[in-house]
Amino acid sequence: MNILVLLDGGFQEETTLRYALYRAQPQRDTIFILSVFSEGMLYYYDAMPMVKDMLRRDIKSHIDRAIKIVREQGKGIGAYVLEEDGELHKVLERVIKREAIDIIYAPPSYKAAFNSRINCPLAIIPGTILIPLDHEELPTDSVNALVIEAKMAASAVHLLGIVPIHIYSANERKELEVITKKTTDNVKSIGKRLIRSHIQCSEALCAGFPDEEIIKAFKERAASIILFAQGHDRPSELNKAFNLLLQERDALKLPIFSLSDLKSEIQFPIKVNH
User: Fold this and answer.
1) Same structural domain for residues 81 and 26?
2) Residue range 68-93, pLDDT digits in tens
């Protein structure tokens, strides 16, 4: 996978880059670190000729800091620095095509800057991680991995409990009630465990086709990524949704991942409270 990380000169870009490296480590993905210089940003450029040079020096300092972080945390990862001039959208279109980018990680300052012309999944980090759940409980190791994920991304978590109401007939009301209660209890249990580890967490319960409910929640919550925490070794409506969304990832521009993809060799000093 080719990952593009955008620098903005702000204090959150370091979190964005560290999270991208964390994501890239398991599969030894390639990272492209992009800094864009646009003279259109210099409103008073004509009146202050030195502003351009000052801004370029500032950009250079952030690039140097990014290189240092890659050297510290990105062992085994191919990383390249791209310095481009021009309008952001045009630069992105050019870089995405030229470097065959699969996903973009960007700090929150870029959230309003993207439009439909950018044909690539975008994850705003820090942001909100959307985690779809059903009635099956998560093992402790998986919940601990969620804590690490949220802390690495410095992000909040939104737990979405989904009841696949369409698979139950009118004669299966009791079964539906049982599944609904189990799903509710599962969401609340995981939420409590995340909160104990100081993760900002919100919860919701919905009923319907899981893939449709996930896309709806992703848009409504303006989520950064969709993270499936439950294993794929059992047949379930949630796993069907994961496979469907994975197939449509590029078309829908969805930054979608599975917790099982994260088997990083990096050790992070993050405390998990039980």
Assistant:
1) yes
2) 999 988 888 899 999 988 888 889 99
